[in-house]
Write a structure and sequence with these properties.
The chain has 226 residues and is α/β, with parallel strands linked by helices. It has a single domain, classed as 3-Layer(aba) Sandwich (Peroxisomal Thiolase, Chain A, domain 1). Helices cover 33% and strands 15% of the residues. The chain is built from eight helices and six strands; from the N terminus they run E-H-H-H-E-H-H-H-E-H-E-E-E-H. It has a six-stranded mixed sheet with strand order 3-2-4-5-1-6, sandwiched between helices. Helix 3 crosses helix 6. It is globular. The model has no long low-confidence stretch (mean pLDDT 83).
Length: 226
């Protein structure tokens, strides 16, 4: 497989405290910080009843995929997260301990693939998705999996999404490096299009997701979609 045949066509991103392409550029230059504590983007383009119960990670995932639209019919999604719906899982654990019972509705929104599944529902995407847990320090493995799906020939375009939410304070003592709440999405293509950039030269095995995003932005060859 010749990796230069894989291109980043568009990039979108969302994080607490950063609301525009210019602010993302400032973040990449170290002039602006991501500020934890915000529940998530407003996603006002969705139905109020639908978004009422969504978590931070689900809202971020929906937002960054929405900002890549339109995409080709049948575009598939590869979703990657190190924590998934960790806040909802924490609430379920507390419910089990205190009440010895479990709400089916709460459980259905707590599973690992919930953010990307909800995004396909919110945006009417029918190309299917894959949810990957990459393991520690294996973000690049997720990109490799996305490329493999792209080169399978099922479609000329594919959406790669990374998202992690702010973890509950109770978990901080168990994690030396808590993920920063943020999400970004890449529209990948097998075809070089105007303003697209090759994917492989931008990958390194030691990258964290935000290191990868920062290098994309510092390259000045691509910017976050408004």
């Amino acid at each position: 497989m010749n990796a230069v045949e894989s291109y980043i066509v568009r990039l979108s991103a969302w994080a607490p405290g950063i609301g525009s392409s210019d602010e993302w550029d400032e973040w990449a230059l170290g002039k602006r910080d991501i500020t934890p504590g915000v529940k998530g983007p407003e996603i006002l383009f969705t139905d109020p009843l639908f978004r009422r119960r969504l978590s931070q990670i689900s809202k971020m995932t929906i937002q960054v995929i929405h900002d890549l639209l339109p995409v080709g019919e049948g575009a598939k999604i590869v979703f990657l997260s190190f924590g998934g719906e960790i806040c909802r899982q924490f609430q379920i654990n507390k419910m089990l301990i205190k009440e010895n019972t479990l709400s089916p509705a709460a459980f259905s929104l707590s599973v690992y693939n919930a953010p990307v599944a909800l995004a396909t529902m919110a945006l009417g995407l029918k190309g299917g998705y894959t949810a990957l847990f990459p393991g520690k320090d294996a973000f690049s493995d997720g990109l490799i999996a996305a490329e493999a799906a792209l080169f399978s020939g099922a479609a000329d375009e594919l959406i790669f999404v990374y998202a992690d939410e702010e973890i509950p304070p109770e978990y901080e003592c168990f994690s030396r490096e808590c993920p920063t709440p943020a999400a970004f999405a890449l529209l990948l293509s097998r075809v070089s299009l105007p303003l697209s950039i090759p994917l492989l030269p931008l990958k390194r095995d030691d990258d964290t997701p935000l290191d990868f995003l920062k290098r994309l932005l510092l390259g000045r060859e691509i910017h976050v979609s408004p």
